From TrEMBL:
<keyword id="KW-0808">Transferase</keyword>
<keyword id="KW-0479">Metal-binding</keyword>
<comment type="function">
    <text>Purine nucleoside enzyme that catalyzes the phosphorolysis of adenosine and inosine nucleosides, yielding D-ribose 1-phosphate and the respective free bases, adenine and hypoxanthine. Also catalyzes the phosphorolysis of S-methyl-5'-thioadenosine into adenine and S-methyl-5-thio-alpha-D-ribose 1-phosphate. Also has adenosine deaminase activity.</text>
</comment>
<protein>
    <submittedName>
        <fullName>Laccase</fullName>
    </submittedName>
</protein>
<dbReference type="InterPro" id="IPR003730">
    <property type="entry name" value="Cu_polyphenol_OxRdtase"/>
</dbReference>
<dbReference type="GO" id="GO:0016787">
    <property type="term" value="F:hydrolase activity"/>
</dbReference>
<dbReference type="GO" id="GO:0005507">
    <property type="term" value="F:copper ion binding"/>
</dbReference>
<keyword id="KW-0186">Copper</keyword>
<dbReference type="GO" id="GO:0017061">
    <property type="term" value="F:S-methyl-5-thioadenosine phosphorylase activity"/>
</dbReference>
<dbReference type="Pfam" id="PF02578">
    <property type="entry name" value="Cu-oxidase_4"/>
</dbReference>
<dbReference type="InterPro" id="IPR011324">
    <property type="entry name" value="Cytotoxic_necrot_fac-like_cat"/>
</dbReference>
<comment type="similarity">
    <text>Belongs to the purine nucleoside phosphorylase YfiH/LACC1 family.</text>
</comment>
<dbReference type="InterPro" id="IPR038371">
    <property type="entry name" value="Cu_polyphenol_OxRdtase_sf"/>
</dbReference>
<keyword id="KW-0378">Hydrolase</keyword>
<keyword id="KW-0862">Zinc</keyword>
Length: 191
């Protein structure tokens, strides 16, 4: 866990899957490598924050303040097709969430996320809202639009923060900067 503002942040070894990890107590120290594997976190514990890191993937932060529950999701192309976001919503609802709000953060946009035509067809067969074309006319995916559609289908209020990581120099982008790219962190906690 990382620590800031008196809150300890749980983090994950993110693997582009659909595992949702429940965190109910502070975990290992920041220097520890003993962190869970998964792509989403949920908690109802005060003083435990949740953190996902992205550099083109979609960070999704979820909260039901009345129920005292929060979640954080790392949704890339594989996570979109596995529907990790809906799995996280289901976990929060199983814990008592009723009025969830999701903040969908900066990510590579559909105008910039070029993929092979076969990949676009495969993904959009599962999530039609992800269909896109780059600004230069080639097949693309809009992972943010796909995640928004999954959240809306699950009955979650969506606030789209927006921003394209590839187009905006102030944001980290693996597609733009390669292996030297930094990471954005999506953070949420119960105060």
């Amino acid at each position: 866990m990382e620590e800031a503002c008196g809150v300890r942040f749980a983090r994950l070894h993110q693997v582009h899957g659909d595992d949702v990890v429940a965190v109910d107590a502070p975990g290992p120290e920041p220097t520890s490598d003993d962190i869970p594997t998964g792509d989403a976190l949920v908690t109802g514990s005060r003083g435990v924050g949740l953190m996902v890191r992205v550099a083109d993937c979609v960070p999704v932060l979820l909260a039901d303040p009345r129920a005292g529950l929060v979640g954080a999701v790392h949704a890339g192309r594989p996570g979109l097709t596995l529907d990790v976001t809906t799995r996280t919503v289901e976990q929060l609802r199983a814990r008592g969430a009723a009025d969830l709000v999701a903040w969908v953060g900066p990510r590579v946009c559909g105008r910039c996320y070029e993929v092979p035509a076969a990949m676009r067809a495969e993904v959009t067969a599962l999530v039609p809202a992800a269909y896109a074309t780059t600004s230069w006319g080639t097949p693309a995916l809009d992972i943010g639009a796909g995640v928004r559609s999954q959240l809306e289908k699950a009955g979650v209020e969506v606030v789209d923060v927006g921003g394209c990581t590839r187009e905006e120099p102030a944001l980290h982008s693996y597609r733009r900067d390669g292996a030297r790219a930094g990471r954005l962190a999506g953070l949420v906690w119960i105060s």
